[in-house]
Write a structure and sequence with these properties.
The complex is a heterodimer of chains A (845) and B (451). Chain A contains 38 helices and 1 strand. With 845 residues, chain A is mostly helical. Among the domains of chain A are: 168 residues; 216 residues, no CATH class; 196 residues, no CATH class. Chain A starts with a helix and ends in a 7-residue tail after the last helix. Chain B is of the alpha+beta class and 451 residues long. Chain B has 2 domains: 325 residues, Methylamine Dehydrogenase, Chain H (7 Propeller), CATH 2.130.10.10; 32 residues. In chain B, the strands form 7 sheets. A 4-stranded antiparallel β-sheet of chain B has the order 3-4-5-6, with no helix packed on it. Chain B has a 4-stranded antiparallel β-sheet with strand order 7-8-9-10, with no helix packed on it. Chain B has a 4-stranded antiparallel β-sheet with strand order 11-12-13-14. About 4% of the residues of chain B have low confidence. The chains are: A mainly alpha (845), B alpha+beta (451). At the A-B interface, helix 2, helix 4, helix 6, helix 8 and helix 14 of A face helix 1, strand 18, strand 28 and helix 5 of B. Strand 1 of chain A pairs antiparallel with strand 28 of chain B, so a sheet runs across the interface.
């Protein structure tokens, strides 16, 4: 045991005693500065003064000292709690709660029932709100601690049962909301810790909670807690039935309220459909939510607003039920839930525009509150996606269909943001299959369009301009529209626009759109994406480049009154960069066009950006490394044909080889290959896309000068190995020559090696079976044409890989090495002179 | 290292054997199973399911369920035709079977409902695999076709009516029966490796929708397994060798093998019938026609363990994480009762699709993926206490209290004034009353005197 540990063991009781002596009020001393208590709490928790934890080999006197210190602490706390002065009593109750959480297990188990009895007294007798609140919190901590000891389950259950009546009484009493909130928290603790204790009071608890939910007085935070408890309630019974009935009750209640609210705003058909799904004809309806008591409660003041708030609260309950874990399998009325969402979303304030003047005040209020309802029902949809996962698959297509219709007509940014986030969730949870459905709707909107224009961006130093100027972009510009006005005029106009149109939500909308696009690219960036990638890649590049054009925002540097706007802007920059990265990394068609810009941007961001942006940029540079460093090896054929040939010789001594067939078809492929498709990967690696056309021309030129190559090839091998590149490029030249299979103008290395294989092992075949295109291999392959085709495809693909896929480069060094190797091999092989001899064009002939 | 188990089955009625991959210890052997090739599946590690070979061709198919901790078959289902391959998605919500007629059957596990049945191939389906994001299904058949299906599109009746075909891609490059299919990571960027009796393995790209590599083997390949890092794949051949073929690996120039084949694992054994790769990518398990299961160390290319399943050939090998309900005896604790009962098995699979619109409810475990509500774990008293103190301090120190003080002072002074006033009134009244009384007395005295 080291010295510091001994000290620590010894000082703990001393420290505790000094706290008692100087900082905790006692019965005689008046309640001093409340800050003293903060210090007490802090030291208790930092040094675990109440833990009485002893290491093995602790001297007995140290143990005794710590036990006696905690004893006196408890004595004082209990004395304080029974004090008549409200402030001291409050402190005592609070400290008792802290003791419940900090003390040792032995002490807790030995005395929790005493503490429990002490605390329960306070919530049974009418006292001060502060004391009630403190008692609820301390009791809830006591129960939480108790639930950790499985052996105390029985006792805990009986204790918790005692609590329920007083808590319900508190709820039903007309006290302050603070007390209600704490009582609800206590109730939820009881349900989670000792579910079976609530069983007998199930209906009364439900009634009390629903009564509070439906009342006009509950604030938002209270109703959140209330519907959390309501969704917990079925857990107390823990069977599938009670969950389902609770869900059904809530849905029917929503339905009844909607009927009142939407009376003249919706068509009857949808209403009846939902009704039928909820309660199939002939089925007995469950008892109303909250029992008969709640049914009677009808407040006649402001009925429209009350209706809306009740509906949204009930939908909130559904969300909680769907997302909180439940121990057993339950049956979820999916169709009814989906129909409910669809029903709410279909009610569109504008559809009744035709008879606007005849709207009553109530209908008008409801129309004005429709966005809130829509938001809640979208939330319900999102909860279903989270809660049900793949089980939702059979219904996804329907959901997307009505959501898309809704999205097209939806204009409020808050709602669009929510729909985007649902799209994102769908993409993440449903996988590639959904891309086909979502690509069009996510890529085909204008939410990001206004960022296309050059001037839609903040100018000058970001850190100094005002919030409005930061977030000014709000001009509708078509994609790729070239602005004709000079930049100065544009910026003038921007300044004029500033005051009117700008707010944070438009930026948030763009962030949501970018996130949805990012998810789309991650999940299905290369799946049937040819149509939209060509639009989206440049768009994302532009958005990212424009967003960061005037420097990166450092969150910590922004002046304090700009905090909200600047952090939103930083979020926007981050979202733009993330989406851009996704578009760069997601394999597309050819090398990413904007890689250069992307690298520059990310590199700058990693140096200049604030903490989050810099971290992200550094990470993305690492992610992109496979694209700009030729490290990864391509999934394409390498060039060890010779090895192949020898293998074939071994495996198929008869000469009826499969490999030759394969390679001959390959040769044919090379012949048929449209030349323009072939671009040297090295070339493409060494230049940007804009130069691609030139390269192709160059390649043609090289091919055009066949003579030089031929000479060099048919001359000696040493010469070729000096010129590996011209040789390699030349491999495409076989495509131009329409020679037959017996071609011997094998200038390209690939063609040369193929030729060797064709001629050598199947030489016998030529005489017996005719041209190698008609070769049939051992009978496993029925149709050699199909085989050729297959191989064609493969080669085409390989060539395409070379030509277009940025992943497929090799370093120059690698390449030349390989060629060097080939050369060696070729010089080993005797057949090469034969080929050369067989070449009709060859000069050496 | 996480415990992994090896499961093996055979077409003869030899049951399902189960060993620990790393220790070699044998677990419970499940009885009465003569599985079809690719017909053994662990449904989300909750229970085992296997489609059964039938003697007579005309009989309906059968699919059996076993609990992990009981040897006997617990649930028997009898689909309308013989099912060859069987596959379940990773969440264990759907089971899909491929029939001998080329139909695919999609059941919901929790209810046993046959949700969809569709004609997928012209001849019997031989293998079924889920893509790594569980939204794509890949099927191979005796007609040499490999097809990719999107589950969402299959459920989407409206789209179904519009489009000519249901599949996303159909690859018909194999000229003979497809024997095995594996798929890699990467969602839509994943690759598929298919083996066929035409002696080739083909590598397909889902995103490009075409074959990107064709590898010709010296013998028919019946089993493929992919290295988890997708560096190479292993192909088990009928000549008893396991060839190692390059995916992302460099092909060193070897003189012994055909293009892309970079080596082989071999021991004198009969044809390799199935392969499975362990999660760490080091161990490879092969099943062979001679009934032996060999565990290979792929780094050293040697055999490290041999299991013996039965005399008959092996036709399925699975490597799984050790399921929680395996071996009730070894796990002791308070919740042993729950363990003893294991996972409640779902009802048997239905025979026909329900035409009536009863799809209104879904049976689901809600939120079982997230264990506990976070808020429950934390104690609140100290936090509430701090907050309360803050509130008290704000009340105690702010200007509000001074105002309050002033108001109280004002109140008290007003009350004092009131008291003064009342006092005055009282005195006045008193004097008045006394005066009145005295006056009346005087009057009475005067009257008496007059009398």
């Amino acid at each position: 045991m080291s010295g510091t540990e001994i000290e620590c063991q010894n000082t703990k009781p001393l420290l505790l005693k000094s706290l008692l002596q100087y900082y905790i009020p006692d019965l005689k001393r008046p309640f001093g500065n409340p800050l003293d208590l903060v210090y007490v709490l802090d030291s208790l928790q930092t040094h675990h003064l109440l833990s009485e934890s002893t290491k093995p080999n602790t001297p007995q006197d140290v143990i005794d000292a710590s036990t006696s210190a905690v004893d006196s602490w408890l004595k004082r706390v209990l004395a304080l709690a029974s004090c008549t002065m409200p402030d001291k009593c409050w402190a005592g109750i609070c400290l008792l709660g802290v003791t419940c959480q900090e003390c040792s297990s032995e002490r807790f188990l030995a005395s929790y029932s005493d503490w429990f009895n002490k605390l329960i007294n306070y919530i049974q007798s009418p006292t001060d709100t502060l004391i009630l609140k403190a008692a609820c919190v301390s009791l809830s901590d006591l129960i939480k601690r108790l639930a950790r000891y499985p052996n105390e389950k029985k006792d805990g259950n009986s204790q918790a049962t005692k609590l329920i009546q007083p808590v319900l009484k508190l709820l039903n009493k007309d006290s302050s909301e603070v007390v209600w909130e704490e009582a609800i928290c206590l109730l939820s603790t009881i349900i989670t810790a000792f579910p079976s204790s609530v069983q007998r009071h199930y209906d009364t608890v439900e009634a009390a909670v629903v009564l509070k939910l439906m009342s006009e007085k509950s604030s938002e935070s209270l109703s959140k807690k209330l519907f959390f408890v309501l969704s917990l309630l079925p857990k107390s019974r823990g069977d599938s039935e009670s969950w389902t009935i609770m869900m059904q009750k809530i849905l029917i209640s929503i339905d009844n309220h909607l009927k009142d609210a939407f009376e003249s705003l919706e068509e009857g058909s949808k209403r009846d459909e939902v009704k039928n799904l909820l309660l199939p004809p002939g089925k007995e309806p469950p008892p109303p939510l909250g029992g008969k008591v709640v049914q009677g409660v009808h407040l006649m003041q402001r009925p429209a607003l009350l209706l809306i708030s009740r509906i949204s609260t009930l939908i909130g309950c559904c969300c909680q039920l769907l997302t909180n874990s439940y121990p057993v399998q339950v049956s979820v009325p999916v169709r009814a839930l989906i129909a409910l969402v669809e029903r709410v979303l279909m009610v569109d304030g504008s559809s009744s525009h035709g008879f606007l003047p005849c709207l009553s005040t109530m209908e008008l209020t409801i129309c004005s509150q429709l966005p809130l309802l829509h938001l809640y029902s979208l939330e319900l949809l999102s909860s279903m996606i989270q809660g049900l996962g793949s089980l939702l698959l059979p219904h996804v297509a329907d959901i997307i269909r009505f959501l898309t219709v809704y999205f097209k007509g939806c204009e409020l940014p808050e709602l669009r943001i929510k729909v985007y986030s649902i799209y994102k969730e769908l993409l993440q949870s449903m996988g590639v299959g959904i891309v086909v459905y979502l690509a069009e709707v996510i890529t085909g909107n204008e939410d990001l369009g206004s960022f296309d224009s050059k001037d839609g961006m903040p100018s000058s130093n970001v850190n100094t301009v005002s919030a409005e100027a930061l977030l000014r972009p709000h001009q509708k510009k078509r994609k790729h529209a070239v602005t004709t006005a000079p930049a100065s005029q544009q910026s003038d106009r921007d300044v004029l626009d500033v005051g009117l149109s700008l707010n944070l939500t438009t930026v948030s909308l763009k962030i949501a759109a970018l996130e949805a696009l990012e998810a789309l690219l991650i999940v299905g960036g290369s799946f049937r994406s040819k149509d939209w990638r060509s639009n989206i890649d440049p768009l994302l590049a532009k958005v990212a480049i424009n967003a960061c054009k005037d420097g990166f925002l450092k969150e910590d540097q922004s002046s304090f009154h700009l905090v909200e706007s600047s952090s939103t802007w930083a979020c926007f920059q981050l979202a733009a960069l993330r989406a851009f990265l996704a578009s760069l990394v997601s394999p597309g068609f050819g090398r990413p066009r904007y890689l250069a810009q992307g690298l520059e941007l990310l590199c700058r961001g990693s140096r200049e950006g604030g903490a989050r942006i810099a971290e992200f940029c550094a990470h993305s540079l690492m992610t992109l490394e496979v694209l700009y460093h030729p490290k990864s090896l391509p999934l394409v054929d390498s060039h060890n044909y010779d090895a192949n040939r020898e293998f074939a010789d071994k495996m198929f001594p008869s000469g009826l080889a499969q490999n030759p067939v394969y390679h001959s078809s390959k040769l044919e492929k090379v012949q048929n290959e449209p030349f323009s498709d072939f671009v040297d990967p090295l070339q493409s690696f060494l230049q940007t896309d804009d130069e691609m056309e030139n390269t192709q021309a160059d390649v043609r030129n090289i091919n055009g000068s066949e003579e030089a190559c031929k000479v060099s090839f048919s001359g000696n091998h040493a010469e070729i190995s000096k010129l590996p590149f011209s040789k390699y490029n030349d491999s495409g030249s076989a495509g131009q020559d329409d020679t037959k299979l017996e071609i011997s103008d094998a200038r390209g290395s690939a063609a040369a090696s193929v030729k060797m294989i064709v001629t050598e092992p199947s030489g016998v075949d030529y005489t017996s079976k005719g041209p190698p295109t008609a070769l049939v291999s051992e009978g496993n392959i029925q149709n050699d044409d199909s085989l050729c085709l297959r191989n064609d495809m493969e080669i085409e693909n390989n060539v395409n890989d070379h030509a277009s896929n940025g992943m497929a480069e090799k370093s120059l060094v690698d390449k030349s090495k390989e060629f060097g190797f080939e050369m060696d091999n070729q010089s080993d092989v005797d057949s090469i002179p034969d080929i050369v001899d067989g070449d009709p064009d060859s000069d050496s002939d | 290292m996480e415990a992994e188990i090896v499961l093996a089955s055979s077409p003869t009625d030899a049951g399902i054997s189960c060993w620990d991959l790393h220790s070699g210890a044998e677990h419970l052997r499940h009885r009465t199973c003569s599985a079809t090739p690719h017909g053994l599946v662990s449904v989300a590690n909750n229970f085992l399911a296997s489609s059964q070979l039938r003697d007579s061709k005309n009989a309906a198919g059968s699919i059996f369920y076993w609990s992990w901790n009981k040897p006997q078959v617990e649930v028997k289902s009898f689909p309308s035709e013989v099912i060859n391959p069987l596959v379940a998605n990773s969440e264990g919500t759907y089971i899909i079977g491929g029939g001998v007629s080329g139909h695919l059957f999609l059941w919901e596990v929790a209810t046993g409902k046959l949700l969809k049945k569709w004609h997928a191939h012209y001849r019997a389906v031989t293998c079924l695999v889920f893509g790594d994001d569980q939204s794509l299904l890949i099927s191979g058949a005796e007609d040499g076709c490999v097809r990719i299906w999107s589950l969402i599109s299959i459920f989407d009746d409206m789209r179904r009516e519009k489009s000519k075909h249901l599949y996303e891609y159909s690859f018909s490059d194999h000229s003979l029966k497809v024997t095995d299919i594996v798929t890699g990571y990467g969602g839509c960027n994943a690759i598929i490796v298919s083996a066929s009796e035409d002696r080739t393995c083909k590598v397909w790209s889902i995103s490009k929708g075409k074959c990107i590599r064709n590898i010709v083997f010296p013998s028919v390949i019946d089993a493929v397994a992919m290295d988890p890092g997708e560096h190479v794949f292993y192909a088990g051949a009928r000549n008893g060798k396991i060839y190692i073929a390059a995916l992302n690996a460099q092909c060193p120039p070897t003189k012994n093998y055909a293009l892309h084949i970079i080596g082989s694992l071999s021991e004198r054994s009969k044809a390799i019938t199935c392969l499975a790769s362990s999660m760490d990518g080091i161990h490879l398990v092969s099943g062979s026609e001679d009934g032996m299961i060999r565990v290979w160390d792929t780094t050293k290319r040697n055999i490290i363990r041999i299991f013996r399943h039965a005399k008959g050939p092996i036709n399925n090998i699975l490597i799984l994480r050790q399921p929680p309900h395996l071996n009730p005896s070894s796990t002791s604790g308070q919740s042993s009762s729950a363990k003893k009962h294991g996972y409640p098995l779902p009802p048997p699979l239905g025979k026909y699709t329900d035409s009536s619109d009863e799809n209104t409810e879904i049976k689901a475990f809600i939120g079982s993926r997230t264990p506990n509500y976070v808020q429950d774990a934390s104690y609140r008293s100290s936090w509430t206490m701090m907050n309360q103190i803050k509130e008290l301090r704000q009340q105690g120190s702010s200007a509000a209290s001074e105002l309050e003080m002033e108001r109280l002072k004002f109140d008290s002074s007003r009350s004092m004034q009131m008291i003064q006033q009342w006092k005055k009134k009282y005195e006045n009244l008193y004097q008045y009353c006394v005066g009145e009384l005295l006056e009346r007395e005087q009057v009475e005295n005067v009257q008496k005197r007059q009398k």
